[in-house]
Batch of 3 targets.
Target 1
Amino acid sequence: MAQHARTTELLGVDFLPLGKAPQIEQEQAQAQPAMEVEAKPVEHPEFLPNAPKPATPSPNAASLPPAIDLASLRAISDAQPDAQSRLDALRECYEQDAPHKHFNTGFTNIVFGEGAADADLMFVGEAPGEQEDLTGRPFVGRAGQLLEKMIVAMGYSRETVYICNVLKTRPPNNATPTSEEARLCAPYLLEQIRIIQPKAIVTLGLPASHLLLGTTSPMRALRGRWHAFPPPAAAQGIISDHEADGFPSIEVMPTYHPAYLLRSYTEDNRRKVWSDLQMVIERLKGDSSA
């Protein structure tokens, strides 16, 4: 139960349903703290139901090597003629460095990311699942099908956005990434962001949100409002002050992971996520008309 509770928290959930009557659940939803930024009822796409992710033990941090130097990745990327060539070179670096060899993983394919190299909108999840591992593509399982519905409802397609994860290989039993696993893989995610330079990033669940924003706040305090990337110098982030100079200023909208929506298929949860995505739509529309 403790493992399940921890994993559920990292998906962006700050409570566990205990089988209370719908009337009690409705009263509790109405009593949410002000920071939840409850959305007005709106039409939203239909979202579908799924299963929880068990967690696995963390590796011994003392035995792990330092993460690859972000400056060296930048130098390799910048030597390429265009954004797609930079992403291809970055993937080659990842395959050679293979940070996943240092932690517990049994994978079939590297799932590096896919989409437009010049996308205005980027989605960042936590790690590949079973179907992603088999195909080598991010978000193609049940959670991925739900994410694609969300993307289409926003007026985009998989081909016009960029989708990736913090980890590039599947953890055993779809376990939530540990902080050390995220640390080793973070430079590659950061360089993906620098190459693509999206106007907005949607982080799906707490692992991606915590990593990019340098925070440990719960999802209820993060979703429903914009955050800055790179994070402020005071945040306990993964980017040093001098490294942050190489990044454009990007706005981040954290929201619940599609896997959580599949497991907690309620009107209230769907409305919250759709409200977050509507804020992204409005911001990107404003940028394109400016």
Note: The chain has one domain: 70-289.
Target 2
Amino acid sequence: MRSTLAPGQLILHSTGVSLPLPSRNNALIGRSDTVSGFFPDIDLGGHGALEAGVGRRHMMLSIQGVSIVAEDLNSTNGSFINGQKLQPNMPQPLSNGDELRLGNLVFEVRIG
């Protein structure tokens, strides 16, 4: 049974930057908003998130059994796994090597 997202990571296609997944059982992905004091677990703000259409509360990654699942949090610009649009609030399993797109930001999922 898997207990944390680590040692997984998201690799940003446009730059090759690796974003490690935290040693927790869930992580909110989005972009920070200093005005409202909102800071997601994985902040994509420094990676062009606003311009790419990533919401402040865009996606939740969490553990379900032995899998990591991705759940779109009713984002405006959507989330996609391997080109398939996720239905909001419907967790979908991720596999090593999957393409994950939030708005127009594209990542490769690496699950350790």
Note: The chain has one domain: 9-103.
Target 3
Amino acid sequence: MLSKLPKGTIFIRRMGNAYFVDRWRKEKGKVISEYFGRKEDASVAKQIDWSNEYKRIKTIFI
């Protein structure tokens, strides 16, 4: 189940009145940052949900 979900940590940062979402993950010893966009977008909300699901499953099985 974990292999189907994206790895990394979601960061929500505020700039002015808007919130933006990034995911940071390690790959081959380097930190990779993925920018998703505004928190209000539906695709970004899906990424946040997947990250929360990954954390939930990981805590159950590890």
Note: The helical segments are 42-61.
